Amino acid sequence: MGQLQERYKNYRVPQQYMEEGVYPYFREITSKQGPEVTMEGHQVLMFGSNAYTGLTGDDRVIAAAEKALLKYGSGCAGSRFLNGTLDIHVQLEKELAEFEHKDAALCFSTGFSVNAGVIPQLVGRGDYVICDDRDHASIVDGRRLSFATQLHYKHNDMEDLERVLKKLPHEAVKLIVVDGVFSMEGDLAKLPEIVELKHKYNCSIMVDEAHGLGVFGEQGRGVCHHFGLQDEVDVIMGTFSKSLASIGGFVASDWDTINYLRHTSRTYIFSASDTPAATAAAIEALHIIQEEPERIQHLWDVTNYALKRFREEGFEIGETESPIIPLYVRDSYKTFLVTKLAFDRGVFINPVIPPACAPQDTLVRFALMATHSKEQVERGVEILKQIFVEQGIIKD
Ligand code: PMP
């Protein structure tokens, strides 16, 4: 037996859940993405997607991707730095910079690689990087890759952030990195307070708009714009894999910072560029969200309806203020069981267990899209209510 096989032969966690019949992962979808999808042979309501604007199945987005595929081919076979820059990459960067009211932007091949390639490049030895303890894994990994001193504060606890900042040298470079919308709990970063602390303690701020883009702010520009703080936030990053109906990510900032990253960020220079189809799809989705405000309005209508209904039915939904609604279960096995029962009854939701949350905070994550109807939301709420009551998680 090889060393690795020897070491991992006892990795039995998934098998245990498989034997119990509640293993929830890697279910195969055989239809187009949308509010209802075909999964493992049956139709389910999709409440587990991050496509908040609902554009992944949009005919215009698909047509734009198809056109780019035919014009440029299937891939770029190189990094942006060398042979992999297309005119549409440059166009998308220009449009994203304008959208975010920043000087310039850079596109990466995933959102994860933005955080992994930008954070360690912005801060190094002698600097400090400070994160909320619920920040996304890609921020955590970006922080780990940096030679800066790594610090964190309790989720959204501004007193704790101040306690951390107080101890640091005034002149040192200090980068605070936060999710604009927290991806599992759906609550927002307290940006106004963070900006105050930035000035008091001489820091910089980077905001991850993965879940804010297409949802918050004028024309879906994100949480920084929602608070009117886009000029106070030094670096904004986002992904194309959620509201922009594609795959890829971007960072936007001032001209000098972007020019530096363009020539040094390792996941940008040493990784192949976004495919033509992915780039064209993101451009089209970016146009649609700006041209169709009613789309975001509808997303908020169904979100507010779902929030009201879950509260009325006595679900514990935490501090969410977004289309991400956490339904707390507070037990890992039951979280998987609820996910399976929901799937069997036609509702797809995501289980969230450690390490994505603390052991006592397990939940199922119910997320809305602009293509959901109120009737579909009501069906989802009713089915989940039945299951949560049966399992003794909420009262009838
Ligand atoms: N940041 C946050 C907050 C995320 O939730 C995610 C993905 N879930 C990412 C970054 C990574 O984005 P991508 O999927 O485009 O790699």
Automatic annotation (TrEMBL):
Keywords tagged on the record: Aminotransferase, Pyridoxal phosphate, Transferase
Entries under SUPFAM superfamilies matching the protein: PLP-dependent transferases
Sequence ranges assigned to domain Aminotransferase class I/classII large in this UniProt record: 44-383
Database matches in InterPro entries: Aminotrans_II_pyridoxalP_BS, Aminotransferase_I/II_large, AON_synthase_class-II, PyrdxlP-dep_Trfase, PyrdxlP-dep_Trfase_major, PyrdxlP-dep_Trfase_small
Residues that span the membrane, as ranges: none
Pfam families, A to Z: Aminotran_1_2 (PF00155)
Family: Belongs to the class-II pyridoxal-phosphate-dependent aminotransferase family.
PANTHER family (UniProt xref): CLASS II AMINOTRANSFERASE/8-AMINO-7-OXONONANOATE SYNTHASE, LD36009P
Listed name of the protein: Aminotransferase class I/II-fold pyridoxal phosphate-dependent enzyme
Species of provenance: Hallella mizrahii
Organism lineage: Bacteria, Pseudomonadati, Bacteroidota, Bacteroidia, Bacteroidales
